[in-house]
Amino acid sequence: MASPLVCSQTAMNRPLVFVPEERCALLLNRLSALPKLTGVTAASRLEVRPAPEMVSAGIHAIDALTGGLPRGCLTEIFGAASSGRSSVLLAALAAATQRQEVCALVDVTDAFDPHSAAAARLALDRLLWVRCGHERKPQDREGHDFNRANKTSLRVRALACKRKIEGPVEQALRVTDLLLQSGGFGLVAIDLSDVPLKMARRIPLTSWFRFQRAVENTPTVLFVIGQVPCAQTCATLLLKLQASEKSVVGPWTSVLGERPTTNDVRRIIPPHAQLLDGLQVEGELLRCRMERKPSRSVNAAFMTKMPRAG
User: Which is nearest to 175 in space by CA: 214, 202, 232, 138?
Assistant: First the structure.
């Protein structure tokens, strides 16, 4: 709609004609009185959305890089195998359970190890572990006397049920939707690490938009890890992890009591006699949509240690 407030000067050197302020105020009053515009708020009166509450990710280097994990937002961390993504997941879950919060883990490929989680100080009694991809075993009815027709119908029904069974990714999306709609969780994590790239990229963007809207204005942290970024623009915080070229071996010392470098250890000690003590992980912040974020480095480094028994 063309604005009647100002008439621009034409090519025939006509003077500019300005509408008086009284007419401007009258026009604004008439527009505000229209029934269709009663619920419309002027842009000058819109409030700035407050910054989300940040919680600790369980790793000091990541907290220093991102400020923590934002509540009511979707945080995505991706990286290749042995890049530290599972360690970050366990650290975030452990930090949430130590805050006396109930967490949920949607394990798409059944890769969660409870022993490693307990070693990371994760309170398993506050964790809901959803294992996707498991089929229900048929009930044993050998004690019942079924005739041949009933047995045939049961077999047909069993085959039909197997065909209707959803894949693990579809189950994970459905379960995540139910968890976010129900509420009450401090952190909901989706582990897509071992999902093939072809299947992970087929997840529709509408699902991530629905998750983003469901978690908005709630105290829940939606945490996603995978090989590649799947949530795309729906992720408020996007972090890339990669393992450093230098691997950390055991605490070897020389005769003089000095600790040799990694190259010296590889030259003196054969590879099959070395013990992996941890990995040096580097993180890069690719996206952060929090407003008024203070300037800080976009890279961080931390080390994952391997717990040993005995």
Answer: 214
Domain 54-135+148-241 has CATH 3.40.50.2000: no
C-beta of residue 230 within 8 angstroms of C-beta of residue 206 = no
- CA-wise closest residue to 211 among 171, 166, 179, 170: 179
Strand runs (DSSP E) across the chain, as ranges? 6-7, 17-18, 54-55, 69-70, 74-79, 103-107, 127-131, 187-192, 221-226, 237-249, 276-288, 299-305
pTM over 0.85: no
Is the pLDDT at 234 greater than 80, yes or no? yes
Q: What is the pLDDT of residues 8-63, one digit of tens each?
A: 454 455 555 555 667 777 777 777 777 766 666 666 566 666 788 899 999 998 99
Question: pLDDT for 152-180, tens place per residue?
Answer: 455 545 544 444 445 899 999 999 999 99
List of residues 6+ apart from 261 with CB closer than 8 A: none
Query: Going by DSSP bridges, is the β-strand pair 187-192/103-107 parallel, antiparallel, or unpaired?
Result: parallel
b/e per residue, 238-258, with b = 16+ CB within 10 A? bbbbbbeeebbbeeeeeeeee
- Dihedral of the alpha carbons of 150, 156, 158, 161, in degrees to the nearest 10: -130
Q: Mean of the pLDDT values across residues 214-227? A: 94
CA distance 85 to 239: 10
Instruction: Return the amino acid letter for 53.
Output: E
Mean pLDDT of 91-108: 95
Q: Which residues pair with 305 in a beta bridge?
A: 278
In 212-297, where do the E strands start and end? 221-226, 237-249, 276-288
